[in-house]
Amino acid sequence: MNSAGPNIYLEAWLLPLLSFVFLVLGGKRWGKTGAYVATGAIVCSFLLSCWGLFTYTQEFSPDFFQERHGEETPRPLKPEDIVLPPGLAATSVGGAVQNTGPEIQYRPGDNRPNAQSPTVQIGEHGRWSQSFKWIGIGAESIRMGLYVDSLTVIMFFMITLIASLIHIFSIGYMHEELHDPVHDPLAVPAGQPPLHRKGRFPRFFTYLSLFCFSMLGLVLADNLFLVFMFWELVGLCSYLLIGFYYERQSASNAANKAFITNRVGDAGFIVGLMIVWTSLGSFNIQDLIHTVRDFSGHMVRKDTNSDKLLEWNQHKSAWLPADDSHESSAEAHYAPGDVQLFDIKTGQPHTSTTITYLLLTVAGIGVFIGCVGKSAQFPLHVWLPDAMEGPTPVSALIHAATMVAAGVYLVGRFYAFFTPDALLVIAYTGGITLFIAGTIAVVMTDIKKVLAYSTVSQLGYMMLGLGVGGWAAGLFHLLTHAFFKALLFLGSGSVIHGTGTQEMPQMGGLWRLNKMPITAVTMLIGVLAICGIPLFSGYYSKDAIVADALYFWHGDGSAGSGHPQHILLFLLPTAGAAITAFYMFRLFFLTFAGEPRDHHVDEHAHESTAVMWVPLAVLAVFSVIVGYEYSQESHTPLLTRMLLFSKPHTILPHPPDAIHHQAGYYALAAVLSGIGMSVLFYGAPVFWIWFLKYFRVLNPGEVARQFPRLHDFLLHKWYFDELYERILIRPTLAIAQFCRSFDWNVLDAFIDGTARVTLWWSRLDGWFDFRVIDGLVNLTSDWVYATGDWLRRFQTGQIRQYVMFLAVGAIGLFAVISFLGADVLRNLLVK
Amino acid sequence: MGFVIATVQNQTMNIELTSVLLIGAVMFVCGVVCMATKRNAVGILIGAELVLNASNLNFVAFAYYTPFGIDGQAFALFGIVLPAAEAAIALAIILNFYNNHMTVDVDRADELKQ
Fold it and tell me: What is the CATH number of the domain that holds B62?
């Protein structure tokens, strides 16, 4: 059964790559045309992804338009769930598509009896997958492939939509880069004339195209190795775009910081990859998940003390003895502490590979550390605020909506692989992150820094939601957050473009009709959405996370349910909701409300052009509407239902409606108190004069003076940078210094010494050669010469003299022979 | 020398080798003295002929007392023919020398030493 689906996504994915190639080859000459090429490519991708979404819903009888209450009782595997590939299909489940391509797939646990054996896959509703052999390593191979389920479809839709809007926005925002030369006052120390450089308009869009390609590849990839490749590619694009104004020292530092911090996370990722490959022999995400979970999604392990098989019970949050169905002949194969692995073909426990529970946890946490780096979670969150040195559309696209959410996406995609302990680590990391980032955002004055910390905080929310079992809630928040945070960033970009400053204390009063009313209204929508005001999308997603957290802590009230010791996991997001509301309204009041504080900035302020405010308006609409149910019967938001259509192969807790309502009240109360505080602090100019008279008891400056140490602590971002400077950078530099001095004083000295000895020896050798060898040769020649010179005197040319010599010589010879005797001569001759 | 060969059976003891060698030696010394003392190139040539003929005489004399057949006589024939050619060349050189220097004084002919 062939489907157009995978091809649609393949084309939508490759279009930005095509645009990237064109821009790399000819972008410099094109100027503004380059932007249209990139924008056209991504808009086409968006249209294709709409078509893909349509095809998907058509093909898989979209039952997410109805409520699915299957979460508590996971669907047991039925025979018809096993789907044979085309040509071998005896039974075919409606909607399940196997598009395995020309090659037979190899799956882990399959001991490959022969290559012709048909591939049997566990049929799952609503996915397209397609793969081919990519790299062969001995008998093993790494496959490359697409995996499209409802999560991919939605992520793809979100990424292409936001990327399209941001491309359009950038045409307006980056307009300055079309000038030649561009004046950059920030690239030089204050007081000096601005730097003149060439405009980089096409380059910006080149990077954006590459980013879109990589990001879309990341959500399409079906295996961890491929994910890792695109993971690095988006990291590269992020680096290039943070350092877009690389003449500015701060931008170049920020780019390096982002890159290096991400490498720390990637080291963890690689550890995870190595464990996964060596222990389980595959990178395919779905294979891995189905290997470590049984058919109903339970994780089964052997007790460390007894031979009992234990099964994780999410409801009671404990390892309980497994039911008899797991008792099998394979049992004896596992050592105590091993996780039971399942053959993905048959679903039976399989015996060829083992992995201990600890190693599985470490593998999960390793992959999660990669996500910590990419999604700027504590303790690697420090790069994201600095990444705001990049152009604002980049902050919106990469550092708010898509790339930083990739970590959350991967945790969601790989969800069933994480052991309960790994999930707890994820939850606490998220909780700590959301609180720390929220408190820092309260005191920031740079509008983009506030939004950056807000992003970190919201990413913490998502991680926490995923960690406490709210798979759909976390990813739902990812999607809603992508829309409203892109909106907020583009709004702030519009403000920065209009006012020429990023400092909120210099703004104020921008909502007046002759200043920036459209930006103000759209920003207000974004602020309401992120705070979690009912009827805006953020309310639904944040409420879902708080509900899951509450359910995780409190359980359903029955004995033994819930995790009373993990109360922090409920308190942190609730407090975080209040803090979020506080700082977002503070941002809004400081920027748009009240009287202008800086005359110069106010004069400069103007509403942006249509190419910039239209994307704002579109995003504002999406920020409102994506959270609704769109159904008469269901109380679950449509996006959640769509996500659950491809829910992970695990047991997800399903908080009852009562918990949802309760959490909703808590969250709303927290949000309202946060807004109230914000109004008390900063809202005075907005609410009439009587308010000022009776209620304005809180002056932010005075409060800051009241708690100087706390204020300093927050202003210095919890001293994270200083801490890292102390414990990492300085020791590293000290080691580097030591190595340098070792190199200089020992290694170089040794080499220099060797050189000196060699030189000295060469001199000696040269002297010997010159004086002794050459001297001997010269002496011989001198002697020969002198002899010849002496003999020359006998050649007089006097023939009579020669005759005399001849005669005397003959006589002499004769005399000698006579004297010595004839025997001597005879001996001489006869011999 | 002819009669020596003709009377070889009876008169062997009459003419001794010593006598012949003595004549040869006298001729040789005369030739050498002639070469060493004459400044005239032709005189030197004559001295050389004397020396050569002394040696020819020795060849023939020794040949008589050695068992090598007529080798000595053959050498003597060469010793006659070659100086004839040599004399022709030498006289040509002398003539040319005379044409160039208007003299046959060998002391004036020392250009070959250079």
Answer: 1.10.287.3510
The larger pLDDT score, comparing residue A286 to residue A163, is at A163
In a domain, B59, yes or no: yes
Q: What is the ipTM of this complex?
A: 0.78
Number of domains in chain B: 1
Question: 3-state secondary structure string, A787-808?
Answer: HHHHHHCCCCCCHHHHHHHHHH
| Residue A795 distance to chain B (closest CA, Å) | 6
Q: Nearest residue on chain A to B28, judged by CA atoms?
A: A807
Q: How long is chain B?
A: 114
CA distance A463 to A365: 13
The shortest C-alpha distance from B97 to chain A (Å) reads 14
Which domain range does residue B92 map to? 17-105
CA distance B55 to B83: 12
Q: Would you state the torsion angle of the CA atoms of residues A400, A404, A405, A410, taken in this order, to the nearest 10 degrees?
A: 170
Q: Is residue B8 part of a domain?
A: no
Token pair of B108 as six digits = 């004036």
Residue B35's CB is within 10 A of a number of other CB atoms, namely 24
Nearest to A485 by CA among A424, A408, A426, A410: A408
Q: DSSP for A543-600?
A: HHHHHHHHHHHHTTSSTT-S-GGGTHHHHHHHHHHHHHHHHHHHHHHHHHSSS-S-HH
- Encode pLDDT of A32-47 as tens digits: 888 899 999 999 999 9
Nearest to B36 among A795, A796, A800 (CB): A800
How far apart are alpha carbons A228 and A371 in whole angstroms?
Answer: 11
Position A333 scores a pLDDT of: 65
Q: Closest partner residue to B113 among A797, A804, A806, by Cβ?
A: A797
Strand A140-149 versus strand A82-83 pairing type? unpaired
The structure tokens listed for A489 are 């960033």
| For residue A379, cis peptide bond before it (omega within 30 degrees of 0) | yes
pLDDT tens, position by position, B32-58: 899 888 889 999 999 999 999 999 999
Which residues does A585 contact at the CB level (< 8 Å), separation at least 6? A527, A531, A674, A675, A678, A679, A682, A683
Is residue B111 a part of any domain in this protein?
Answer: no
User: Does residue B61 fall inside a structural domain?
Assistant: yes
Q: Which stretches within A716-798 are classed as H helix?
A: 720-724, 730-742, 748-768, 774-792
Query: In this structure, what token pair is assigned to residue A467?
Result: 């960690």
- In this predicted model, what pLDDT tens digit does every residue of A447-459 receive, in sequence order? 999 999 999 999 9
